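During the reporting period the student researcher (J.K.) took over the structure-prediction task from the postdoctoral fellow and processed the backlog of single-chain submissions. One of the processed entries is reproduced below for the supervisory committee.
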Amino acid sequence: MLLTAFKLIVGLMTNSLGILAEAAHSGLDLVAAVVTLVAVNVSARPPDLGHHYGHGKVENLSALFETVLLLVTCAWIIYESFQRLVFRSVQVDASIWAFVVMLVSIIIDYSRSGVLSRAAKKFKSQALEADALHFRTDIWSSSVVILGLILVRLGESLPGFHLMTQADSVAALTVAGIVIYVS
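J.K. obtained the following structure tokens:
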């Protein structure tokens, strides 16, 4: 929750769509984590009169639900990116805070992905495996946002490279593409 709040605050401070997209994505990560926790607990129940073969399919439904949430987030990111690229100009402040929040995000996602991957193998859990993959993808998307912020900074400081200031919106589109592919 702190990471999501940190991304949201810095994204609003800097007007970075890439960081705001990551904040929305992190917010969905919170929802997805709760859904996964519930799914794993329900799927571990033994068979009963209403479920002769057990409750294991709940994990599959959990993974499907998480995928749908990711796709809805991507639709918003794509819409907002096109708005910024085509219809309105937004000044992005690629400050040190923008880079700090994304580096912190990468470190946390790397740690979470490793823990979830080991747990998925140990418990043979598709839901935990999906979450581990999700956080590995977050590392790539955060890296793309950092690249976009670097290009924004270069575009502001180099004469004749003003178009590079739109790299944040292009980075947000790239994040959406990565997430859609993995989903």
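The committee noted the following: The two ends are 23 Å apart (CA to CA).
J.K. will present the remaining backlog at the next meeting.
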